[in-house]
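User: I'm new to structure prediction. If I give you an amino acid sequence, what do you actually give back? Let's try with this one:
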Amino acid sequence: MKKIFSEFVRHFFSNPILPLLVIVSSVLAMFFTSDGQSERLKSNGVEYVRTSTPISVISDSESTTSLASASASTSTAASQSSTTAFTLTVVSATATTTTEVPRTEAEKAAEEDSNTEGSTTETTSSEDNPDSRPERVPVSDYKVYVGADSSNSSYYQERLTILGDSIAYGFNAYGYIPYEHNIAKESMALWNMNKYTFDLGGGSMGAVDAAVYLDSPLIYISIGMNDILGTTPESYANQIYGIAQQLVDRIPDTTVVIGAITPVSANNYYTTNDTINNFNNAARSTVDSYGSSQILFFDANAILKDPNTGALASNVSGGDGLHITGSSYGYLLNALFNMLDNYDVKTRIETHDSKYE
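Assistant: Good question. You get back a string of structure tokens that encode the predicted 3D arrangement of the chain. For your 357 residues, that looks like this:
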């Protein structure tokens, strides 16, 4: 056997073509069998299948989640069975409506097939305005949250700009907003925001300047996880509100939503949910104290936490204890759009868009 093996090795390496063929074949096999995951996560030009996302996050118990204080709030209630039914509770200033909808796997599949077409809204800049803004980017090629309760879901989503850290970046990475509406990067925080730049078509700009360049009528700020270890809840609340106020000052008809810091898993290495709750409570109190109709607080934390433990729900955990799954963003948008309806944000957006007509 040793003699046969030795003869094989000698003949194999005596001919340089044979090793080369083996190497080329291996490379080709790796290339054609790769799942291309990194390419699919690229936000620009990526294609995603539109799916209907369940409304509730938790499937084993019922919970009611407060989304905003002031005159109105919106809540999502979890179902007792994620495969048979879900319960949605919407709380408004005048009435509470609960609707139970039975759902089977076959119905879910049928709903996915029936929602393959989306609407596209295009708004172009005024050619007569020397300071005209870029053409609005339609989101027809991006994931649209099918099943959101608000009839204005697509309207909001096509105008939504996201500003923030790696968790905020997920809106773009998972296809909920186009690249042109993304002002978020990994590791970005309030304390280092001035070090980050974005080029959305008008050259390299800071985060606030980029939002002003877009003249965005709806801005969602999700930032703070990277600030927790270096500041106090009060300082964080004042800083994030200051960013929101800058945006309102420079885009007078915009609506800025400050999103709560999302929860973390109970066994994560970074921080505790009690600490996060302190930061979120400070931010909510600051927003409430100013009472601006254009700066709203959205309790994203309550949407994604397990009501029994207060930690990040296991079915929306990204695996590292801090980040969240792609489907999580669908849950957040569903609740956010309902809240925007309660504050009649659409009317302000229509006023904003009318200047481009």
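You can read the tokens as a compact description of the fold. Here is one thing that stands out. The longest strand covers residues 85-91.
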